[in-house]
Structure formats: C-alpha cells, structure tokens
Amino acid sequence: MSGPAETPPMFTPFSLREMTVNNRVVMSPMCMYSADDLDGTPTNFHVVHLGSRAMGGTGLVFTEMTQISREGRISPGDAGIYDDKHITAWKKVVDFVHSRTNSKIGIQLGHAGRKACEPIAWKRDTPLNQDQKWKIVAPSPQPFGPNSEMPREMNQTDIAKVIDDFVNAAKRANLAGFDILELHAGHGYLLSSFMSPLANKRTDAYGGSLKQRMKLPLEVFDAVRSVWPEEKPISARISAIDWDDNGNKIEDGVKMAQLFKEAGLDIIDVSSGNVTNVRRPVTPGLFQTPFSEQIRNEAGIPTMTVGNLATAEQINGVIAEKRADLCCVGKGHLFDPYFVRHAAREIGYDLKWPDQYPAAKVFNPKPEIMR
Length: 371
Ligand SMILES: Cc1cc2nc3c(=O)[nH]c(=O)nc-3n(C[C@H](O)[C@H](O)[C@H](O)COP(=O)(O)O)c2cc1C
Known about the structure:
Blueprint: E1 14-16, E2 19-21, E3 25-27, H1 44-55, E4 60-67, H2 85-100, E5 104-110, E6 137-138, E7 152-153, H3 156-176, E8 180-185, H4 190-195, H5 210-213, H6 215-227, E9 234-239, H7 250-263, E10 267-271, H8 289-299, E11 303-306, H9 312-320, E12 326-329, H10 331-335, H11 339-346
Parallel strand pairs: 3-4, 3-12, 4-5, 5-8, 6-7, 8-9, 9-10, 10-11, 11-12
Antiparallel strand pairs: 1-2
The structure holds flavin mononucleotide.
The site of flavin mononucleotide has 20 residues, from strand 4 and helix 10.
C-alpha cells in the first residue's frame, strides 16, 4: 500500500516546547485501578497496557490519573507517584515506550479531593470497610454524592501540602522520564472542585469569583512549572462546562484557559462535567469539540479534544478545521490498542509497522475482498 500524496492531517507532527509527537492521536488518561500493592505502585499491567497502545501507533499515551498523595487516591487500586518507590516502577513503563515505540508518554497528575475513598471501579457495589477508609479533604465540607464520604474543608496547611505534593510528584515524574505532564483539573477532582462554584463555597481568597477559584490550580501550576524542565510541556485537563445552570459555563471555560495560558501553560485538554454526581446528558457525536474549538479560538491556546472520537475521518476533520491540535481517544483505545494503525489502514496511509511486525503490512483482514 502506498501512502497518499499528502499526509493526512491526523498523521502530521505537532510540537510543544521540545516535545514532538509524530501524529495527532493521544490515548486519553484512563484509571485502571490496578496498582499491585494497594499503595500506588504501577505494575507489569501498566507496561503492557500503555506499551501496547504506544506500539499501536498512538502519538502520545497518557497514564491514568496518577495520585500525588495517598489520601488523594480515588480507590485503593489507584496508581500513584507519591513515594520514591514509584519512580522505578514508572520508569519501566516509560523506558519501554521510549525504547520500543515512536510514541511519547505523559503522566496525568491528580488528587481526587471529595471524590476520594471509593472502592475500585468494578467493586463499587461493595462499600469499603471502615478500616479501609481514609479521611478526605475538599474546598468545602460537601460530599460529592449521597453515598460519598464527608470531606473536611481544607485549611492553609492542607493547601500548602497539596502544592508540595504536586511539586514532589512532578520531580519524580521527571526522574521517571515522562515527556509531558498533565494536571487533572477536571471532572470534579480536587483542582476542579476548587474551580467549580458547585463544589467551592469558600469565603477566603480561594473561593468566590472564577479568578479566586482558580487561585489553587494556578498556584499548583506555578509551583510545578518551576521544577518541571523548561524543555518539557505541561497540559491541564479541565471541565470546560459543568452541565448545570448554577455551574461553570463555556465563558468560564474560556477564562480558565486564558488564566492558565497567562501563567505559561502549553495546552488545554478540554473535557466537561462530572463535577457533581448528576450525570451529564448522554450526548452523541463530538459533543465536547465545540468547547475545544471555542477555547482554542478565544483564549488562543492549543487544545486537545476528547469524547466519542472513533474514526480517522473525524480526527482528520477536527485537525484540518483547527477545532483542536490533538485528539484524545479513550474508549476507542480500550476497544482496539491498535486504533491508530487500523485507522491508517482504513484511509490508505502507510504508517510504518514496528520492526518486529513487518508481516502485518501484508495481512488482509478482509479476505473476501481480493487484493
Ligand atoms: C475506564 C475509564 C477511566 C477514565 N479515567 C480517567 C482519568 O483517569 N483521567 C481523566 O482525565 N479522564 C478519565 N476518563 C475519561 C476519558 O479520558 C475520556 O475523557 C472519556 O472516556 C471520553 O472519551 P472517549 O469517548 O474517547 O472514551 C476515563 C474514562 C474511562 C472510560
């Protein structure tokens, strides 16, 4: 198969600082609840899970939301980077991706805030025992949902600790060799809960106007930027809207992006919702891409879009129409680790197979069609 004369937009490279990805597809961060020792250590599962998507041709793979502290875990199975023992384990994942694939690898750093202290995803029907639970913190003493733990309102000492924990996590992430770091400032987790008026009821400098609600996320960003190498980019995932009349609207999402941009953020990863336990409407199609497009145009910062991306045609359209700079694919990558290679094949683009797999190029997945 020979490639078309022009490189499809999906397969054009893209640079942020000194990181260049060789195509526009990103594996979206996805929690896997599979740390081995129930204390954050990634395992061979993570090498295989992230490594196979990188072999599958993805330009950039993101780890799941990786917790910056033990108390910041969603569940006892969460991956973490809050202890030096986690560096070696993550380095194994990163080294595989760097030595065996053409993909870059990023880490998403987070703290679950009032969404912490839950059973792992496939055991949600069995609540944690009293002795498995831990104390949780949030901007305001308001539980996430009716069955959630009651968080303690964070004081200045807690705030200082969270900033410190993000900084130490970033230093460890650099030692592990990650190419890009993403702050999880979406989906109602700690930073996002500060940003949303639905979760932040504070009356001090960290609550009130959007600018004040952004104070902690921006302090975290500044502190992390100061220890993260100059040549490596930083992203932030946000909930651009809360899907609630009393919550953040897209104008707020644009403002969040502007504030992050002024602080020196390189790219915004535009998601939405999940800030309260009221589920966002089930929306077909590229329902979040309009938010990415508006933020990209109005805040003038590169964006990633995410949500229901399933085909090369969609990704080519998003990139060609400048609705986003990168396209995150989540469920599509669970369905098919070789999502990018198969999408290339679909559109007749000659993406080089790994050195070990040249024979895959002559495989005919549709034998009923004569070649
Ligand atoms: C199993 C699973 C785990 C997820 N965990 C995270 C996460 O750790 N961090 C995050 O920002 N989003 C997380 N998400 C959201 C995805 O990154 C993505 O935004 C969402 O699935 C929509 O994209 P898709 O339609 O391509 O799946 C998760 C989604 C799934 C399905």
